[in-house]
Amino acid sequence: MDRWKIIVVMIMSVLVFSIISGYIFDTLIYNTKITSSLSGLERLPSIEYEVKQTIASITPSEEIPTFKVERKVTESLQEIITTYAEQGRLISYTASVSLLVPRNEVKNSVDKALAIMDVYDGYISSMDVGEKTAYLVLKIPQNNLFNFLEDVLKIGEAATRSISGIDVTDQIIDLRARIRNAEATEARLLELLNQARNISETLEVMRELSKVREEIEVMKAQLRNLEINVSYSTVAIEISEKELEKEKVELLFKVIDSRDLLVPNTYIYVKDDSVRRFVTDEFGEVKVSFEKNSNITLIAVFYRSDGEILKTSLTEVADSNKTITIKFNKSSEPPSINLEKLPIIALGLINFLITGLTIIILLVMPMLLLLIFLITLARRAYSRMKLVKIVK
Asked: Are strands 123-129 and 248-256 parallel, antiparallel or unpaired?
């Protein structure tokens, strides 16, 4: 009986040793793979260097000659315009306003805007008027710009409003100088035309004179446009109907598990007009607003501590303020013994056992046999030496 006990203990010891050896071997291999994959990180360039390189690549190397300023339409707008005027700068201003008006008031609002334009001596550049929207581009004298905007903003509710200014002083000065030089060249060519001695010289001078006059006309047109833009500011006005505010309702989502216990930290994905995500509080609840009578689809997801994901879904109609209970078909707490995990655990132990036995067969057994062989040789050598001494 003692003999069988010893055999069983030896077999159990070999199995336990094999499992432990397999676990240690797999762990060492896994850690080695992670270390080798992380060893290349030091060769990656630093994020800070990449950011600096990116910023450097988009930074302009030359200064932009055109001065541009953008400001919101505020009460200090008059001070901004006055400041530029006092500096002797020629600024071309462009303003834009987006107005929301009640239903069926778009055309009436357009008439009001045009009446205000007439008061400030402006004129229409373009106009597109529909039943629900209208778009106007008006030209307003620069010295009346601020007062015009102030009156226009009273027509409806301002959704957006902005003003930008471009300094065209240098362009105007340059064009005037080029025009003077071109006119001087024109005068010189006229003198040469009077001094021409033959038809060939006359044709050559007239050809050059035509080019110069064409350049003068183009530059004068550019100068005239710039001066008009400085004298008259461009104001773009968009008028549209204000959407009626839809009635809202509030739904309280309450999440429970199979034991009817509240489940906090549950992710609730809601789809109506868009997809939104919410998380339940420590009481397993979250309150969300919806447009009344909208159809909604809910997906509740909870990540349990043992790695299992609980999921459920339902559809509802947000017709009134109410509480919607979302219930999982499992407990939010993992069981003390998870029977579903037993096959995985058994498979892992078998894997460790096979690995350990393989290590024993390939590594330990040869070394053990070698050790036994060496011990046998040593014992035989010792026996021979002892026999020789006895014979002597």
From this structure: unpaired
